């Protein structure tokens, strides 16, 4: 596996300590990490000038963009007109991914009132995947609340849309504590990228909120060998949190690059 750093990990520093487009440089110079995951919510308005600024930094630092987590729209809402508007908006992020060379975007399931009707969600994902596939972009689904809080829904959606165009983004921290490990086992086999979520560390450098080592073991057993994207979500210092996250992963995965 390889390390990746998500902009979410330094969410409070972006556009305060450094501009968004310099994130790949910060990841490389501060942490020695060349792969970056760029959250849609951290982008400035993505016109070609701003995207070219980002690409210049990516090239200069030998960086790789792994994914864009997109947090707009609700592709499962029952109102057809509103759903169509949101799907169109998400397609624009497929175009951004194609422009900057990201191989995938994360699209949330969204929420639905009443008894779930996954056929609506499947239709939306199929439309987005149909648009993305000719551009070489795959669609990822994270366990990120709403319909995706149930791992059985995630598996049904992946199988309905097709794994060649669609996969999962298992996040260590987003399932309920009682379901975490069983649910991760269900969705890891379809993973495009894994979110190695970390929370606050204690004075000994341990993260007690859940069994991170067990999550990594599940990833291995699921046959995954791609990027582990660090998502530090603690309340403490984010620079320090990322450093401790890297140290934790390297302790458990000494051969990780």
Description of the structure:
The protein is an alpha/beta fold. The protein is 40% helix and 15% strand. It has helices at 23-31, 48-60, 80-100, 118-132, 151-161, 180-187, 212-221, 238-252, and strands at 2-6, 35-37, 64-70, 104-107, 138-142, 166-169, 194-198, 227-232. It has an 8-stranded parallel sheet with strand order 6-5-4-3-2-1-8-7. The radius of gyration is 18 Å and the shape is globular.
List the helices and strands and how they pair.
Elements: E1 2-6, H1 23-31, E2 35-37, H2 48-60, E3 64-70, H3 80-100, E4 104-107, H4 118-132, E5 138-142, H5 151-161, E6 166-169, H6 180-187, E7 194-198, H7 212-221, E8 227-232, H8 238-252
Parallel strand pairs: 1-2, 1-8, 2-3, 3-4, 4-5, 5-6, 7-8
Helix pairs in contact: 3-4, 4-5, 5-6
What is the assigned CATH homologous superfamily?
A: Divalent-metal-dependent TIM barrel enzymes
The total count of strands amounts to 8
Main sheet makeup = 8 strands, parallel
Assign the structural class, choosing from mainly alpha, mainly beta, alpha/beta, alpha+beta, or little secondary structure: alpha/beta
Poorly predicted runs: none
Write down the overall mean pLDDT. 97
How many helices? 8
Short summary:
The chain is of the alpha/beta class. It is built from 8 helices and 8 strands.
Relevant terms:
alpha/beta, TIM Barrel, 8 helices
């Amino acid at each position: 596996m390889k390390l990746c750093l998500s902009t979410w990990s330094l969410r409070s520093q972006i556009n305060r300590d450094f501009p968004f487009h310099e994130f790949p440089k910060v990841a490389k110079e501060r942490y020695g990490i060349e792969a970056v995951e760029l959250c849609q919510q951290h982008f400035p308005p993505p016109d070609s000038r701003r995207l070219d600024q980002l690409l210049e930094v990516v090239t200069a630092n030998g960086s790789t963009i792994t994914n864009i987590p997109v947090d707009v729209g609700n592709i499962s809402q029952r109102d057809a007109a509103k759903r169509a508007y949101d799907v169109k908006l998400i397609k624009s992020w497929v175009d951004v991914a194609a422009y900057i060379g990201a191989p995938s975007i994360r699209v949330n399931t969204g929420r639905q009132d009443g008894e779930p009707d996954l056929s609506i969600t499947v239709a939306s994902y199929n439309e987005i995947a149909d648009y993305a596939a000719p551009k070489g972009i795959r669609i990822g689904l994270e366990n990120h609340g709403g319909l995706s809080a149930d791992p059985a829904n995630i598996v049904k959606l992946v199988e309905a849309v097709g794994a060649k165009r669609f996969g999962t983004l298992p996040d260590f921290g987003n399932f309920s504590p009682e379901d975490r490990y069983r649910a991760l086992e269900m969705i890891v086999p379809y993973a495009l990228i894994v979110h190695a979520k970390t929370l606050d560390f204690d004075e000994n450098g341990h993260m007690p909120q859940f069994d991170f080592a067990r999550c990594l073991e599940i990833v291995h057993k699921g046959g995954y060998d791609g990027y582990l994207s660090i998502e530090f979500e603690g309340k403490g210092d984010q620079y320090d949190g990322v450093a401790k996250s890297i140290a934790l992963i390297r302790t458990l995965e000494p051969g990780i690059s």
